[in-house]
Amino acid sequence: MRATLRDVAERADVSTATVSMVLRDLAEGRVSEETAERVRVAAAELNYVSNGHAASLRTKRTPTVGFISDRIATTGHAVKIIRAASDTARQYGHTLLMLNSGDDLADEIEAIKELRRDGIDSVVYARMEHQHVTLPAGLPDNVVIVDGVSDDQSVPAIVPDESQGAEDATRHLVDLGHRRIGLLNEDVSYSLAARLRLQGYQRALERHGLDLDPALVVTAKNSPDTADVGAATLLDQASPTAVLCFNDEMATGVYRVARRRGLSIPDDLSVVGFDNLELVATLVDPPLTTVRLPHEEMGEWAVRTLLDDSFRTHDRSPSGPTLQAAPLVIRHSTAPPSERRAPRPSADHITA
User: The domain 5-159 belongs to what CATH superfamily?
Assistant: First the structure.
């Protein structure tokens, strides 16, 4: 049974009037952004489709961009991509219709059929984690991929420049004077992002004439317990003066283990994360230096590529996906390894 407006209202714990305003893009100044985001996520979780498309179905084209994702509601990255995509669509007189597949192929195919039945012929196909993708059957010709790489090079795609981000983070540590820089990474056998970040780390060491000590590279799963185990292994077996982590959650594991061993961050150990999850990076003590994944930029690029012919022709990579820069955000978790100390920045500083 198709979800109703009331179903969305109950899921988001708001009135049906509020849901209607949000989904018709009339909420600005009337509904807080937090409440509006809750409504949009609830609608996506329920695969809610508004009957407001009916008037334009006669032309088989609607001023709507479809947004199909594997995990709209289960990752903090999604909100930034969706907000940027929605804001950009609005600039072009379109709305954004979100469908959450839960990474289930059958649900994805059904979502595509639903979009096509409603005459929606522009689709963002988004992954919430950088990966290889096989596009499902039935997508319209006007489709772009966010955070994914397809074997079909004719499909526009955008991904974070993971490798350059890791290289910049490692170079930052080298520039501070560190020579024993550890990497706490995910398993490169199944994580494309982990492979690319390892490449960037290795390239930075090579360019600075530093040998790669295998003991300085440790793999851990992305969970608190395994991150702690990986951090303990790295600190105990390799004695690094700095650690680059696969993501901000793993960096918190390094924080915990370092403190159990009486190590002060950044006086005894510098730590760099990856993602820039603000609820993590800005709340740990000291605030975490990290690489910011460019979710807003990717969401904007995707919709502009779908809707703006001039943008589509000049901003395409000639081969492979477009690489979006992932800048380093310098906070207070990094410092030189000796007693000399550079002044700490008074506010977050983002490198180019």
Answer: Response regulator (3.40.50.2300)
